[in-house]
Amino acid sequence: MGYKEQMKIAVYPGSFDPITQGHVSIINGGLVAFDKVIVGVLSNPKKTALFSAEERMDMIREVFIDEDRVEVDAFEGLLVNFVRHKGSRVILRGLRAVADFEYELQMANMNRKLSEDIETIFIMANDAYFYVASGLVKEVAKLGGDISSLVPNVVHQRLLAKLSTR
Ligand code: PNS
């Protein structure tokens, strides 16, 4: 590919513990704007994760098994280094309600400070999922609530299996 036809690659980073329908809608939105979306799974999140990085990656790969423009990889350390390593200059993030804004603004500015040539681009979450967050989904599932419409089927099954062994 020549300079002008270079593939547009975005990196969509997150904890994905586990991936929700909200995340899925952001990835699908990313595929409209970019040739390829690389989902970057933070392998050592500050908060202790319910699923291991491998489990989180497996679930995302299964959801996008028929979409070869989605790649899934783990990263640790600085996000901007991972983005550059993947040959991208775009960080993709989703915005739900106003509450996300401050955290996202802080991260986007920090990443710009670290790396001026990397741009953060936001996609608005589908309004059907604007209240869906991995933490809430886990809490509701633990308490026996129905989360089947909030997460992909593979995640629903794995969540029930994981919680039944705890
Ligand atoms: O799903 P999350 O928890 O909102 O994702 C947060 C994530 C993974 C995007 C953020 O914690 C991150 O980029 N971590 C990597 C460390 C880093 O680069 N920190 C400086 C930028 S704020």
Summarize the structure.
The chain has helices at residues 21-33, 53-63, 79-85, 99-114, 134-142, 153-164, and strands spanning 9-14, 36-42, 70-75, 90-95, 119-124. By secondary structure, the chain is an alpha/beta fold.
Explain what you see:
The longest helix has 16 residues, at 99-114. The protein has 6 helices and 5 strands, in the order E-H-E-H-E-H-E-H-E-H-H. By secondary structure, the chain is of the alpha/beta class. Strand 2, helix 2 and strand 3 (70-75) form a beta-alpha-beta unit. The mean pLDDT is 94. Strands 3-2-1-4-5 form a 5-stranded parallel sheet, with helices on both faces. It has helices spanning 21-33, 53-63, 79-85, 99-114, 134-142, 153-164, and strands spanning 9-14, 36-42, 70-75, 90-95, 119-124. The structure holds 4'-phosphopantetheine. 4'-phosphopantetheine (PNS) binds at residues 13-15, 42, 78-79, 107, 110-111. 4'-phosphopantetheine (PNS) binds next to strand 1 and helix 4.
Topology (SSEs and partners):
Layout: E1 9-14, H1 21-33, E2 36-42, H2 53-63, E3 70-75, H3 79-85, E4 90-95, H4 99-114, E5 119-124, H5 134-142, H6 153-164
Parallel strand pairs: 1-2, 1-4, 2-3, 4-5
This protein binds 4'-phosphopantetheine.
